[in-house]
Write a structure and sequence with these properties.
The chain is of the alpha/beta class. Helices cover about 40% and strands about 15% of the residues. The protein has 12 helices and 10 strands. An 8-stranded parallel sheet has the order 3-4-5-6-7-8-9-10. A two-stranded antiparallel sheet has the order 1-2. Helix 6 (about 195-205) links the parallel strand 8 and strand 9. It is globular. Its EC number is 1.1.1.307. Belongs to the aldo/keto reductase family.
Length: about 325
């Protein structure tokens, strides 16, 4: 199953997330994911594993498992490269590391312009801005960055462009000046943070939505997030487990199907081949209206990925 983007391309409804894939194992995980049927791979400059992800992709293509045009490869422009002169520089680094000629989707990772860090100084730079652990920012309007993204589409190096971690107000403003509208909005989305008004708003404007961290706190426990550690896991939530038992599926499958049934794409990651296959096989059952209503009641507006925690950056206030 796929979503038809406003750019004219089709994006798979279920993909494989590359966040937290270690360099040591990434190539094999990507190869095996392609082998069992994944076609969308969601990466980012900040994940620091493009070289290994690219090796897995190219090995699968070389072995005849898949052709490049059957894959949908996503990456994200990191905060350090928002200045228009640096947008294409960042893309060229991504393409070189992945070993591909174009991206299917390139997203602005956060609506935050950090100070530029040359690639040969530190890559990926993360929060480093050239001054130890201190944050520094550049006065780059989002529309300026977006116009540079549009040029990537015109060059043929990117097929679709979009945004990630944007609020409705920022998207509303961006659309006023965009020549090419965002094709996709990627957001943190799980039963504890449902953002239904945002989803309804952008979908009504022809922008597709991709959910990350579909399992809620589970994605952040290994990062030693106190907020995640203190939050009850969705895998053991009474509502989720009851629905899973009723359909004979796992709680993870319920969480993913809850999104895809509402035309929200998902990008789960699993290092376990059996669970990875389960995550891919979620569209052969349907949640009832009552079950959807029960899940809707779990919303707490609880966000685990918030730049306010980095340096009091107020993008979600």
């Amino acid at each position: 199953m796929s979503i038809k983007l406003n750019s004219g391309y089709a994006m798979p409804l279920v993909g494989f997330g590359c966040w937290k894939l270690t360099a040591k194992d990434a190539s094999d995980h990507i190869y095996n994911a392609i082998k069992i049927g994944y076609r969308l791979f969601d990466g980012a400059q900040d994940y620091g594993n493009d070289v290994e992800v690219g090796k897995g992709i190219r090995r699968a293509i070389s072995d005849g498992l898949v052709s490049r045009d059957e894959l949908f490869i996503t990456s994200k422009l990191w905060n350090s490269y928002h200045a228009p002169a640096n947008v294409e520089v960042a893309l060229e680094k991504v393409l070189a590391d992945l070993g591909v000629e174009y991206l299917d989707l390139f997203l602005i990772h956060f609506p935050i312009a950090q100070k530029f860090v040359p690639i040969d100084e530190k890559y990926p730079p993360g929060f480093y801005c050239g001054d130890g652990d201190k944050f520094h920012f550049e006065n780059v309007p989002l529309l300026d960055t977006w116009k540079a993204m549009e040029k990537l589409v015109e060059s043929g190096k990117v097929r679709s462009i979009g945004v990630s971690n944007f609020s409705g107000a920022l998207i509303y403003d961006l659309l006023r000046g965009a020549t090419i509208p965002p094709a996709v909005l990627q957001i943190e989305h799980h039963p504890y943070l449902q953002q239904q008004r945002l989803i309804e708003s952008v979908q009504s404007r022809g922008i597709a939505v991709t959910a990350y961290s579909s399992f809620g706190p589970q994605s952040f426990i290994e990062l030693e997030s106190k907020r995640a550690i203190d939050t009850p896991t969705l895998f053991e939530n009474d509502v989720i487990t009851k629905i899973a038992q009723a359909h004979g599926v796992s709680p993870a499958q319920v969480l993913l199907r809850w999104a895809t049934q509402r035309d929200v794409a998902v990008i789960p990651k699993s290092n376990n081949p059996d669970r990875a296959l389960q995550n891919l096989s979620i569209n052969d059952f349907k949640l009832s209206d009552q079950e959807l209503e029960e899940i809707a009641k779990l919303d707490q507006g609880l966000r685990f990925n918030d730049p306010w925690d980095w340096d009091h950056i107020p993008i979600f206030i």
